[in-house]
Amino acid sequence: MDNSLANLTKNLGGKHPITSQDRAPTNPRIYFNPKREDLTGDYQHAQKVWKTFGCKNLSEYHDLYLKIDVLSLADVWTQFRKTCIKYYELDPSHYVSAPSLSWDAMLKKTGVKIELFTDMSMHDFIEKAKRGGISKACKRYFKANNPKIGQAFNPSKPTS
């Protein structure tokens, strides 16, 4: 997968349509509407945002959208975190998943003590019933080379 992704980015070339388009798309049906729904209101809002924030190209509009999206999600997460700490005295940032957080919250609020199995058949029953788990794909370290990283950018190397 890493090789195919590297090949894809290598073959993209220099100038991308997103940075060369210097105005909002003129026909919202072409750009925003795979379901053929009427998006006139959404398109007018997008044009207003483009003008209000002085976007010079589609890349700047895209970056603005991402910034707003990320900051909104950060606000939601912060509020969720405060609520969990207030009501459960548990920090969701210390959990891998919502089910593991809710399990600990249930144990804490109910005061239930889970006993160890004393019968091997009970243990075997649970082991045979296990499903799911956590699945992830990760890369331990990646060094970016991008003009936006400042002095660490090396123009003689490919942009990543």
Query: What's the helical proportion of residues?
Result: 40-55%
Count of alpha and pi helical runs: 7
**Global shape:** elongated
Number of domains: 1
Taking Cα atoms only, what radius of gyration do you get, to the nearest Å? 25 Å
Distance between the first and last residues' Cα: 16 Å
- Content-based structural category: mainly alpha
Number of strands: 0
User: What are the secondary-structure elements, in order, as H or E?
Assistant: HHHHHHH
Beta strand %: under 5%
Keywords:
53% helix; 160 residues; DNA replication; mainly alpha; 7 helices; single chain; elongated
Question: Can you put this structure into words, describing what you see?
Answer:
InterPro entries: DNA-dir_DNA_pol_B_mt/vir. One of its GO terms (biological process) is DNA replication. It comes from Rhizophagus clarus. This is DNA-directed DNA polymerase. This protein is mostly helical and 160 residues long. It has one domain. Helices cover 53% and strands 0% of the residues. The chain has seven helices and no strands. It is elongated, with a radius of gyration of 25 Å. About 3% of the residues have low confidence.
List the helices and strands and how they pair.
Layout: H1 2-10, H2 17-20, H3 28-32, H4 40-52, H5 58-88, H6 98-110, H7 120-129
Short summary:
This protein is mainly α and 160 residues long. It has helices spanning 2-10, 17-20, 28-32, 40-52, 58-88, 98-110, 120-129. The protein has one domain (13-135).
